[in-house]
Every structure is written in C-alpha cells, then in structure tokens.
Fold this sequence. Notes:
single chain; mainly alpha; Arc Repressor Mutant, subunit A; two-stranded antiparallel sheet
Amino acid sequence: MDFTPTTAAGLHFRKTISGEDRGVSLDADMVRLLLAIEEEKSLYQIAAEVDLDAASFKRALKKLLDQGLIEVVRKRRPPLGKDFLERLRIELARAVGPIAGLLLEEHAARIPGAAGGIPPERAAELVAALAAEIPEERKRVAFQKAILPLLTPPAGPGPGGRR
C-alpha cells in the first residue's frame, strides 16, 4: 500500500482477528505499531505516536496488513460547505479586496468533486492556490494563519471519552 499526503489523511486502521489458524511473526516495530493502532486515530496520529522513521513505519504497517492483523478503514469526513467557503472568501477579501469572490470561484472550480462542497483532503490545496494569489507576503501569511484552524480536524476525545 502506497501512501501520499492526500490518501494518508483519510486512512484509519483497526486491528482484526482472521479466522485462519496460522502463526504470525512480529518484530519490535510491528508490536509498537500494533499497540498504537486504534480506529479513531488517523495514520498521522499513529505515526507521531510510535516515533518510527518513515521507512520502518511503512515496512511495519505493510507487514501487519499482509499478515491480516490490521485492516484499512476509510472514514469520510463530510465536504466543507458554504460556511468554509464564506470564511475563505472573507479572509481572502481582507488580503486582495473585492476580487476575492472571483478568485475563490475560479480555484474552487478546479478542485475535482467540489460541486457538493470541498473534499476535506483537498482543502489545503485550495488554500495554497488562493494564498499564491496574494502578492503581499504579510497579507498572505495572515490569510494562511486565519484559515489554518479550519483545516485542522478537531481532536477526538481523550482517555475515558472526555476532553
């Protein structure tokens, strides 16, 4: 399984128990990774928690998948709709003025599948394209800082289901 920033953002894994009666072989990296895997955690959260280099992480993840000890769970976040686009337009207008709406329409139209809202995994791409339209660096940075909280998924509940 090959991971890109776009595909990895929506990947989650869960532990599985196969019905097959076969032995498994685990090395230390695989055990660390298996212990960290919970369906609620994204691939990025797991990677940060186990603190393995990228090659070791991918290798251990592949071995766990190949042995049927984990499986991929694709969680779809709902598309980012009118509220997100309106906030983008407002922040962009602060940087470039009244052409913000036109720039937003133009760049949003280039995002595949954006008719029903912006796919969350493509939102950063849209923000980067809009930021590139802001000629003044100070305003560009302010725009990106204002939008960053919208791109960060909310953290899940901590231990015991509470925040």
